[in-house]
Amino acid sequence: MDDFFRSVERFVNERIRPNINDWDEAGEFPRDLYREAGALGLLGLGYPEEYGGFECSLSDRLRLSNLICDAGSGGLLAGLFSHNIGLPPLINHGSDELVSMIAPAVLKGEAISALAITEPSGGSDVANLKTRASLVMVNGEPHYEITGDKVFITSGIRADWLTVAVRTGEAGAKGISVLMVPGTAQGLTRTPLKKTGWWMSDTAAIHFDRVQVPASHLVGQENKGFRIVMENFNTERLMLAGACVGFAKVCLRDALDWAQHRETFGKHLINHQVIAHKLTDMRMKVRATEAWFDETIARIDRGDIDQTLVADICLLKNQATQTLQHCANEAVQILGGMGFMRGCAIERIYREVKVMCIGGGAEEIMKELAIRQLGW
Ligand SMILES: Cc1cc2nc3c(=O)[nH]c(=O)nc-3n(C[C@H](O)[C@H](O)[C@H](O)COP(=O)(O)OP(=O)(O)OC[C@H]3O[C@@H](n4cnc5c(N)ncnc54)[C@H](O)[C@@H]3O)c2cc1C
Q1: Whole-number pLDDT of residue 286
Q2: Which of 156, 176, 234, 258 has a C-alpha 20 to 30 A away from that of 146?
Q3: What is the CATH number of the domain that holds 62?
Q4: Cα 50 from Cα 156, distance rounded (Å)
Q5: What is the pLDDT of residues 62-92, one digit of tens each?
Q6: Ligand 1 centroid vs 156 CA: distance in angstroms?
């Protein structure tokens, strides 16, 4: 594992870090990067070997993703690893045939995977989603025909495979299914969206106009998709929490470095007590959040899983996003005008903070879910 960590570090330092500003300004990173990350083994982390992945503990997987955070771009993390939200429903619940058709190419970086849950009418209330899929016969074969809209979909423009939540049954959570839809499907229209941050990650609005996929593209059982979607959110929230810790550390590191070199009124910034206190507060929040994060991961790795775990993951996500909000805000303040300039990691992270508080379950929803899981 140590060798692997070193090779990922090299990949970050040589391939990612020097290009990160240009990719952000360009609004995309090269598609080849998926193949390079796939060849390195980064995309296959935590996935079954039979599909080209390699098993590793959750803690190693998240420590590795922390190395990518060190380059200071949530957009890269979201885009390059969108399969980490798109693929698990398929791997965990899809038929062998469907998984074998899709997963190996995604883990090699030859195909891009995205998850499409959110709709223009709302993302928090998943049980109320409206995109409809009905069974129809096409050339004597059963197909699902999908009509509706998805929005804010990460990697939605480039995705070769979309993992889509649709309504196949009654209103509410019991009428939802998950389907695998190829990006090339007829009737699919994808529109890029402009955003405050995560510039290099593509984000799409997707319209489905009677898009047909074979009935064999159903993941799990019909009308049992809500549980699959919810289960997937737990991992996404953990990954987001880990990323927040990673980016908060970048804020602390770069702000401390600046404070140790910048002089005002005849001394380094760090020697102004107000600034030193800001940095100690940042460290305090980072250390506390990281400790909680590590404890949660260790708990999962040893199989200590119950309802309080789901509640804690929700609250940990909020703790981590609040820590990042605090650290990014203070880091910009410590850098002064320079913290507001493009090309600086702290400026980019500051722009990216809000999406962490909204994506994968917004702060208010995390509290509601935690309350329900705790039985309060
Ligand atoms: C850059 C970006 C990338 C994204 N990538 C993806 C992706 O890849 N796939 C995907 O499916 N989705 C994606 N999303 C969507 C994201 O998951 C949703 O934005 C999020 O779930 C919130 O949904 P919403 O935006 O529709 O807000 P809404 O659900 O309309 O909520 C708006 C606000 O009201 C609050 N609120 C809602 N209900 C309640 C309540 N009962 N009590 C109190 N407060 C409430 C929410 O917390 C939120 O603050 C992405 C979003 C962004 C911005």
Answers
A1: 98
A2: 234
A3: 1.10.540.10
A4: 27
A5: 888 889 999 999 999 999 999 999 999 999 9
A6: 16
